[in-house]
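USER: Please consider what follows.
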Amino acid sequence: MDKPLDFELDKDGNVARKRCRRPSCREMFPVEEFPRDRRNKDGYGSICRFCRTKDMRKWRKGHLARIEKNREAVIKEHGEEYFEKQKREWEESRPWRRWSIRTRERLYSSGLDVSKITRAEIEGIGSAAEVCGICNQRLDWTDSTAAKKGPDTPILDLPYSDTVVESERVWVICRGCYTAKGGRTLQEYVAYCMGISDRFSEWLHGISTPEDD
């Protein structure tokens, strides 16, 4: 059996996609999903961002005391107000970036193939979305990375229920519509909504009541 290639070249001969060298991963991703590393010939690291994110989270869990000590040092030097202001300004200035990182992790953890879409592409899609693609409600980007999300929180959705995530086949909708749509394709969801509309059309026009059905 042939060994799978560890990289793919574009038409100009440059590395376009490469395989993560972490044994537990070994997935093929666009090179943009690897951190920059001048020591490597292609200019990118060998471990993908997904694995590095997992490493960072693991490191943070094991060094909570150290992190808290550094936080206290900053507060002692500049004050609690300065620390909270810096944290708030950083979060508010980069809502799409943080959203794109968590969105791609969510899709990957769900078993979807995200090798054909980069984090930067997801960020671009998010930054261009002001309203929900279904209900036209304005999206609340300040709530996009909060632990407790509201109905107008933006979510990247696959309207055709693809298993491969591609930039041309995704859109951003609100959490309310995402929950209502469930696992349906857009076509199935529209048919579902039309069925409800037909069932209650007379009631909406005051001709009958739901109990009459």
Notes: The radius of gyration is 22 Å.
